[in-house]
Amino acid sequence: MNKTILLTDIIDFLGNEILAVHGNPEGIEIRHLSDPHNVDEFTLDWINPLRPDKQNIAKKSKARAIIADPETSYDENLSAQNKVLIIVDKPKLAIAKIGNAFFVKKPKPGIHTTAVIHPEAIIGKDAYIGPNVTIGKCKIGDCAIIHNGVTIADGVETGNQVVIKPGAVLGHEGFGFGRLEDGSLIKFPQLGKLIIYDKVEIGSNTCIDKGSLSDTIIGKGTKINNLCHIAHNVVVGKNVIITAQVNVSGSTIIEDNVWIAPNASLRGHQKIGKGATIGTGAVVTKNVPAGETWVGNPAKKLEK
Amino acid sequence: MNKTILLTDIIDFLGNEILAVHGNPEGIEIRHLSDPHNVDEFTLDWINPLRPDKQNIAKKSKARAIIADPETSYDENLSAQNKVLIIVDKPKLAIAKIGNAFFVKKPKPGIHTTAVIHPEAIIGKDAYIGPNVTIGKCKIGDCAIIHNGVTIADGVETGNQVVIKPGAVLGHEGFGFGRLEDGSLIKFPQLGKLIIYDKVEIGSNTCIDKGSLSDTIIGKGTKINNLCHIAHNVVVGKNVIITAQVNVSGSTIIEDNVWIAPNASLRGHQKIGKGATIGTGAVVTKNVPAGETWVGNPAKKLEK
Amino acid sequence: MNKTILLTDIIDFLGNEILAVHGNPEGIEIRHLSDPHNVDEFTLDWINPLRPDKQNIAKKSKARAIIADPETSYDENLSAQNKVLIIVDKPKLAIAKIGNAFFVKKPKPGIHTTAVIHPEAIIGKDAYIGPNVTIGKCKIGDCAIIHNGVTIADGVETGNQVVIKPGAVLGHEGFGFGRLEDGSLIKFPQLGKLIIYDKVEIGSNTCIDKGSLSDTIIGKGTKINNLCHIAHNVVVGKNVIITAQVNVSGSTIIEDNVWIAPNASLRGHQKIGKGATIGTGAVVTKNVPAGETWVGNPAKKLEK
After folding, report:
1. What is the ipTM of this complex?
2. How far from A243 is each of A251, A270, B256, C91, C169, CA to CA, in Å?
3. Which residues of chain C have pLDDT under 70?
4. Looking at chain B, which residues constitute the CATH 2.160.10.10 domain(s)?
5. C281 contact residues in B (CB cutoff 8 A)
6. Which residue in the set A175, A178, A263 is minimally distant from B96, CB to CB?
7. C110-301 belongs to which CATH class?
8. Domain A5-103 is in which class?
């Protein structure tokens, strides 16, 4: 974060999202986004619309440039301090966009020499494939970012703009065994695929198994955090958030926009309805209707 | 799954397990096993004996060849469709065997050039060792399949036909500390071994620590899924199923044929009796008698 | 553990910690520390001060040398057996020190040829960096032990004598998303650092994210076991014990000397007070006052 950005460039970038700019942005340099513990004259600060004391925060901020919602006004005090106040409807969203555009570093496209890639794998254009990645006979979409140490087994297909973080293991055999009469275990063949749609992000050391006879599917825009386990034949919808250490057992269906808190476990063959919320450490043993929040072990509907 | 297998070869393979073959199998080609969403003329379909409508499933299947139990009969409709009905006692088991024999791809024996192996390690015959594997001074049995990115530390001994999936870490130091008077922590030496018997399978990114002064042991035929943690001195019996994200703390004993559901946690120094079942997310803080099912946090016996 | 150590060298090493040595240690060879299942004439045995039958344990041990506390006396029986009894205040601690000094193997400093290290990374002196490690633009302290397959992303700073076990992923982007009106998710920029102080140990396949706008911090002497997830902006104090599979969500503060049992989950933005204990599988949704023990889902104070 040692880059210096001109505030005027940030204002140009936000464009129509800006409702008003108060004060003179010319010549102001921005080196970092607001960190509440570390605001200085090079910070682009922002004010959470939920705070009751917004005017006071703007007054006391050490930053020269502040993004706030329309309830904050450019009063004499801000003017006397030569501050710049940028008014937008959603300050946090504006900060996110600015951060992603100006401060986040993305790896440059290219395949690291240590990656081990199946000769028949199809890799889309502008993909980054990091050190020690292992890719089987599979299809990777355009603009993929596949960080170091990721495993992508045979039969995985990804859309475009997927991000896979270090150590994730995608498309390996699922865990299905039958017990024979002598107690020993026979493996059920795991022959399906793992299909990952566009803009999915998968966290570090997360494991997603391929399907057994049908496929495992991760829908468009879904984000999965670190150390999750998604079993065979699971079908995850669009824009689902699966936070860290979540377990989803086989053949469970998770519909669009569901939010699953850390360390929750979903039993197999259940259905989590659209927009449902699952609490931290919840053990879900039943179908969860759309829009409901379930918590506890075993999980029950949270009455609000 | 683009291979084509002759149905007659499958019938030969099943041999004595077949009670009857109805219809003419000559010339029928099989390209995939039953996936309920995707059955076509090249599918080998099967019918779950628990289904009440078996005859109707056989009638409506788009497959030309179906495996079913003796309650399904080769009626006029099946005959008119020129279907082949193969009768066995356990259709699912037959499908598993066929899948493993004809469709599952196993890696060919050999050691990838990027594997880093201790010069005094002993590797059994016909082992597959994938890319970026790290193997210390240890003994690996015959026909091992050790996938990419696995770590096997000094002092691990495995039997034959073990399967270790990507990113698993086997035989590293366990986690044992004592607190000194100034609050700082001193490590207890971790000097034991990790001993893994024949036909054990260990999931992706699972960690199994070596013993502290005695050994950690994983019994013959036991299967462990992804992202599990098995601590020092744990002793696991034969044919145990440990599903994803299970935690087994130090010195706990798990007897033969136990089944542990995902995300369960077993406190250290407990004993899980033969054939017991532990529920999803259960937090087991006591000994569990043989054959019982325990669920909840803290886990209690499930009365049926 | 095939090394042979002279008991007299061990006695020299313990020095002032020894209250008394009974019997003649000359010529006694030690090859291993006490493993209750496997004591022989080359074992250095020890007796837990909590055991009621200490004198009898000393009598029956097959070892020639035994470490015990002052309640054990060198009676005629021990003398007749020519045993050596070494008296210290804390036998377990003495065994730990002996094991660490004489039996634990540490990797030799050096950087494995397969490690991929950013050209501007600063690596302290006497560091060991194992096979297939990936290190970004960051600062690693002196005497670090970084095992194979570890990922250390840009912006991580570590103190001295840190130990990072295989497959850990340190300093990658945290998991923060906002939902837009069309349901899609936008990432909040993750621009902070991960700062790790001296003598921290981090377990295999554990993931610790860097801060979003402020930093993630792991305090001096803290030990973290395998498969844990520590989210962005978490601040962990000194000498904390975080056992396996623990989840700590974003911005939570864990004060000094806290002990967190396996598979516990801490919600974000909470504070765990100094010296608190969190039980196995506990789901902590509130602040925990200093010194208290909380268990269950949701976690509540355990009244003793």
Report:
1. 0.95
2. 19, 19, 34, 44, 16
3. 1-2
4. 110-301
5. 265, 281, 283, 297
6. A178
7. mainly beta
8. alpha beta
